[in-house]
């Protein structure tokens, strides 16, 4: 089965590209981020027409996550993370599909840093780690996938110098990501591309796509039970180059 994480950067603006991707690639599970729409305006009818059931956690104009399943309806398990009741951002949605647990994650960007937004990012990562440990303890196949807004390694960016001051590459961000992996999660794409140099995001500015000036911030983390089923992982890079595309490319893992 093919599981995909895809930051669509506005589902209304990107709906033709999303339906195109679903039709052409026929992935089994898709986790979306930055849908940027309220719950009552999510285009579930169009997605259903493409053959997918969907669950979503929207927020007007910002954030928002969703889980899609081919010819099935995802069963919602949890929306949002505990530990900060005043946090109303729509950034986490956890579902079950045929015995597989998946979570769609849109981690805070954290810029500018230092400052309140960066502090929020780090707190959110700790809350995610707490939930991730609970999921590991359940010992069921689980995939935590999404836009983590973390560049884990120097070879995950086109330019260390260009990103040096960015919240995505700060030592604190990287350390929080490493602590998550240390719980026992497998970074699927890194496992298949250990030498790095694989991008999942290219900014709209300064001809980043044309220059291939990207970086890797979309990750799929596998529990041991899911990692045992790992076949391959990659990026459907060509979709970034299509007309009115998202600035992220669909990033995927195949499991038996």
From TrEMBL:
Family: Belongs to the DNA repair enzymes AP/ExoA family.
Ranges of residues in domain Endonuclease/exonuclease/phosphatase: 4-248
InterPro entries from the UniProt entry: AP_endonuc_1, AP_endonuclease_F1_BS, Endo/exonu/phosph_ase_sf, Endo/exonuclease/phosphatase, ExoIII-like
Keyword tRNA-binding: no
Enzyme class (EC, first level): hydrolase
Required cofactor names: Mg(2+); Mn(2+)
Gene3D superfamilies, per the entry: Endonuclease/exonuclease/phosphatase
NCBIfam families: exoDNase_III, xth
Residues engaged in binding Mg(2+): 7, 34, 147, 149, 247-248
PANTHER family: EXODEOXYRIBONUCLEASE III
Active site residues per record: 106, 147, 248
Site (Transition state stabilizer): 149
EC number: 3.1.11.2
Protein name (record): Exodeoxyribonuclease III
CC cofactor note: Probably binds two magnesium or manganese ions per subunit.
MF annotations from Gene Ontology: DNA binding; double-stranded DNA 3'-5' DNA exonuclease activity; endonuclease activity; metal ion binding
Residues marked Interaction with DNA substrate (site): 248
Keywords: Hydrolase, Magnesium, Manganese, Metal-binding
Keyword Acetylation set for record: no
Gene Ontology BP terms: DNA repair
């Amino acid at each position: 089965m093919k599981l995909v994480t895809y930051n669509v950067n506005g589902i209304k603006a990107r709906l033709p590209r999303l339906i195109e991707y679903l039709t052409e690639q026929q992935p089994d599970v898709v986790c979306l981020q930055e849908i940027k729409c309220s719950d009552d305006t999510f285009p579930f009818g169009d997605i259903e027409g493409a053959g997918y059931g969907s669950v979503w956690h929207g927020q007007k104009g910002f954030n928002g996550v969703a889980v899609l399943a081919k010819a099935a309806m995802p069963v919602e398990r949890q929306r949002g993370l505990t530990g900060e009741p005043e946090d109303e951002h729509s950034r986490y949605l956890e579902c079950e599909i045929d015995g597989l647990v998946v979570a769609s994650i849109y981690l805070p960007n954290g810029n500018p840093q230092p400052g309140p937004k960066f502090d929020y990012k780090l707190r959110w990562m700790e809350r995610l780690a707490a939930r991730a440990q609970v999921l590991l303890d359940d010992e069921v196949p689980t995939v935590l996938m999404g836009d983590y807004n973390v560049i884990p390694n120097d070879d995950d960016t086109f330019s260390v110098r260009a990103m040096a001051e960015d919240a995505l590459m700060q030592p604190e961000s990287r350390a929080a990501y490493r602590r998550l992996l240390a719980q026992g999660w497998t970074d699927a794409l890194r496992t298949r591309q250990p030498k790095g140099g694989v991008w999942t995001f290219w900014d709209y500015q300064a001809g980043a796509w044309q220059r291939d000036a990207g970086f890797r911030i979309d990750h799929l983390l596998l529990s041991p039970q899911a990692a045992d089923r790992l076949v391959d992982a990659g990026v459907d890079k060509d979709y970034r180059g299509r007309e009115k595309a998202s600035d992220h490319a669909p990033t995927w893992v195949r499991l038996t």
